Amino acid sequence: MLEKVDLSRALTKEQAEPKLKKLQERLRILQQAALHAPIAVTLVLEGWDSAGKGTLVSKLVERLDPRGFKVRSTNAPLEEELYRPWLWRFWMKLPAYGEIVVFDRSWYGRLGVERVEKLARPDEVERAFQEINDFERALIDDGQVLVKLFLHITKKEQKKRFKKAEADFHTRWKIQPEDWRRHGQYEEYLQVYEEMLERTSTTHAPWTVVEAMDKRWALVETFSKVVDAMERRLKAIGKLPGEIRLADVVAPPPKPKPARSARAKSRAAPQQPPKKGAA
Length: 279
Description:
- The protein is α/β, with parallel strands linked by helices.
- The protein has helices spanning about 15-35, 55-60, 80, 90, 115, 120-140, 155-165, 175-185, 185-200, 215-235, 245-250, 260-270, and strands at about 40-45, 70-75, 100-105, 145-150, 205-210.
- The longest helix is centred in the N-terminal third of the chain and has 24 residues, at about 15-35.
- The relative contact order is 0.18.
């Protein structure tokens, strides 16, 4: 799958900016539609170190209502999580109905870093392929929107980005010794990712490989996939903005006008001239 990806795809600034602006606004509207539907939206971001996942997350949530989305970064499991089935900690972080959750790394760590670094037994890895497919099937059957994106760059490009980050005082903290060690294992990870994508790209939860050599292209492609998936789900349930009144989706209900007191009403009433002969 990865060897067939055209990594030469790119956009100029003039091409990307108007597209990105429209997509950001469309995603903002769709977020409100999902809130009122309500449907849950899960975005899974996987890929190489320095492929641009952090930038994508920042742009995705830039114009969204912060009350309606969460970003989940996946780290090593906590002690209490080790005493439960391994997918339990991801179940606990899924979006509620009406929410959007972005997973910056996800349950696919079991088929990636845990496999290469021997943090999971071979039988656990093999079992995880079917467990993940069943897990995602359950989410789709529940009506959830699930978008899985893998950001792909070459080994040469990864090395270039590592060096650029290390040369900048503000970003050098991002590059750790283990990042360089994994860079040296690029070919091993490539084989593992190939099998992961092949065996977990299903009809109900397909993978999209995003060409991430050009960051503008990656941004527009990511927004397009998320917007398309949300539109298809909202259309299926008859709540796609455009098929219903946008005012019902986006605008809050008007506030009732406060009742006027009797004293205020009397002050506002026009003064009548006194009648003739009145004392």
